[in-house]
# Entry
Amino acid sequence: MSDHERDIDQHSGTETTGHEWDGIKELNTPLPRWWLITWYVTIAWAIVYMILMPAIPALPGLGTNTPGVRGQSDRVNVAASIDQLHTARQEDAARLLGASLQQIETDRDLQQFAMAMGESAFGDNCATCHGAGGRGARGYPVLADDVWLWTGTLDGIEQTIRHGIRHEEDPDTRFSAMPAFGQMGMLDRHQIDDVTEYVVSLTAEEFDAEAAVRGAEVFELQCASCHASDATGMRDVGAPNLTDADWLYGGDRDTIYATVFNARNSHMPAWGDRLDDATIKALAVYVHSLGGGE
Ligand code: HEC
Ligand code: HEC
# Structure
């Protein structure tokens, strides 16, 4: 550079570097000062950071990463916080095991822990049938309301979860079997039509009154033993109330006819040997809290 004379570009009035290609000259435009300063600062920051913090092979030839003088390590930090969480969880899980369901519900910390654990276990194991948040589906009862087939008490819910409903392999399972009145020839089609009309008459505005009267007799003889004489159901046998508008399978004539003809007797798995005790307790507390726990 030193040997070239200062060469000012005619057109822009800017000094050139003296480099020239085919008549095109390179202008000597220095980088803006603010830009340079920023650049130097980032370099300085990188060096300081590399010294303080662990870095992935920061310098060639070093082999492993530089540990950094502050002894920070995400790996170590994560391991430590997982350990911490584990111990906390184990302590909470142990407290769940030691407490009764009622105690869990009255202890704020325990209850919060049980709710979180229950919610996640519910999502993993129960939501496939009962829907997210227990909102139910056809044939799978809503758990987020105060209508219960068997029971809505804490202990009762735990029992249902542990032993299931009509779960063959569990001797303590909840059990009842509505007969398949049509299939088994216990009632003929006319009688089933009549009793269907009677059940319809309990909630609908329009129905065949004569058929319903005949159906009421059939009901008293064949159905009242489980659904009660007033058709409000019986929890001992998990027989639903037929006088509310809350249907497990459906309240229209065709569906009721099919229910009486074939029966349903649906299954609920037993979770006693699939889930650990703490999880089952947490689930009971969670389900109890969803809607109308009793
Ligand atoms: C394979 C489907 C299925 C799965 C999975 C399932 N359930 Fe059920 N559950 C049912 C059915 C069907 C019923 C109703 C059975 C009947 O007719 O009495 C039921 C009934 C219940 C009841 C009794 C409700 C009442 O009104 O008395 C509770 C409580 C319950 N389930 C909780 C759970 C929990 C908690 C889980 C997860 C650990 C779960 N269920 C997983 C199918 C399922
Ligand atoms: C041995 C007890 C028993 C007898 C007898 C019985 N039921 Fe049921 N019924 C049940 C049970 C338990 C359920 C619900 C569980 C299931 O089937 O999944 C049920 C369900 C029903 C449902 C479905 C309700 C809904 O919400 O969708 C209807 C309708 C019904 N029964 C009508 C009758 C009629 C009508 C008779 C007489 C002809 C009768 N039941 C006799 C036990 C009985």
Summary: The mean pLDDT is 90. The CA atoms of residues 130 and 137 lie 6 Å apart. The pocket of heme C (ligand 1) is lined by residues 125-126, 128-130, 139-141, 143, 148-151, 157, 160-161, 165, 238, 266-269, 271, 283, 287 (CB under 6 Å).
